[in-house]
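Sat 14:20. Reprocessing the chain from the morning session after the first attempt stalled halfway. Input below, unchanged.
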Amino acid sequence: MASARTEPPRTLIPVSGSLEKLRGNLKQTRELSAKDQSKARKALQIAAPKISERLGNLAEVAKRLEKETNEIAESVAKQDMPETDKAKELLSRQEKLNQKIEQMKEVLRRDGNAQDMKQEEGRERARDVDDAVAMLDKPPRDAKNALEESVSNIASKEQHASLELAARNQNELTQALDQLAEHYENLENGEGEKTRAGLREKEAELGIKERLDAEFAALEEVLELANMSPADQIKALEQKLKDNPVMQNELRDIAEDTLDNAKVELDELDNNQQQAQKGQSNQQQASDQDVKAAMEAAQKMAEQEVPKIQEDAQQAKAAAATEELKKARESLKAAAQKGAQAMKNPAMKPEEKMQAMGEELADAAKALEQAAEKAGEKSQSANDPGEKAAAKKAQAAAKAAAQKAQQMAQQAQKGQSNQQQASGAGRTTDPVEAYMWAYVAREQARKASGQKANAVRANIHLNRIKKELSGAEIKGAETKAKEILSKL
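Finished this time. Tokens:
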């Protein structure tokens, strides 16, 4: 204490000046950095060719190819001799050009995806991309097909006809590229309206006008709703629902899917209860009846459930998901076939017959998981509201189907009874999710006429599941259930 009292008082040094100096240095650094970034962007713009330039370069390539195709066609007609080697060379060059066209289409799509769809100009430029991609779709493909025919044609007259057809398609491609190069040059100069009408005129000829009109009208409606208050949104949607059969059908499908899911959950809970009451052993082996049920379930998934998901994936234009769903269908059909073959073999035990389907069912589950993942990716990248909604629907349905197929595969690989899945060490269904679907089923049944018995049944399940859940879990499940019900 004595030494502390003898220390001289500390002198406080003001730091405001130092802070101001530091703030000034930071501001100067940011300004310099911004200038450097601006210079870098300009350098990249100079180094990277503009879309209009790339389109113009492709137009020149197509024009030269068209000229040479016409020259060879005239030579074949004049000499009355086929020029197979020259036709092969033309085909090779056309294929290379087509590859560049595909790359150009991807560049255009990226430009469309980068637009601000909330702004009218952004929507118009995104529609420009739809027009451009459609304009560049058929001519290069038809030119390639015609050149392939010219290579295979031995007679000079037939080869001449094929070469002339190829030249006409090349000319159409050249005109499309020239038109698009002019339009994108105008866009780069802020004058896109000068040539936009020409692109719109092409839509009817290309057969895409009605689809694009509907898609962009729907997008504008969504944006209009987004600017409304929640109360006004509900009123507007209710008004549209009265006069919109598409919305009515979509809501009906959602309601049916929801009730189907609820029924599955309730049936699983019933099985659990029955198994618990019977006290059957976890080691129960499969019977022939179980094999038959597994076959029928796999066949039903292949013929009814997966095709419905495929329809949504196709509507979402999720090609990768559609391909995985196709694999899933094939695996499910193969599983059913293997089960049918096994049933004809009296030497096989029922559990062995079940195991015969295990690998294909596992493959189906894996493909469905992949389909759900791909559909999810599409829902994130899609700009069109209809495609985004369809992708989300496909994702959810594929995920549910994958879980179901995985359970079937596990049961088959173990050679266990159908009842086994339900009676194993604990319930396979998430109790929170089961409570949610039972709540939805109860509320829907209460609204529908003649569904009193189902409402009572669902309520019994709710009370039973409640015993296993905490208050927070119950509240969370009911919140999700109400969100689902609000959409029905």
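The two ends are 78 Å apart (CA to CA).
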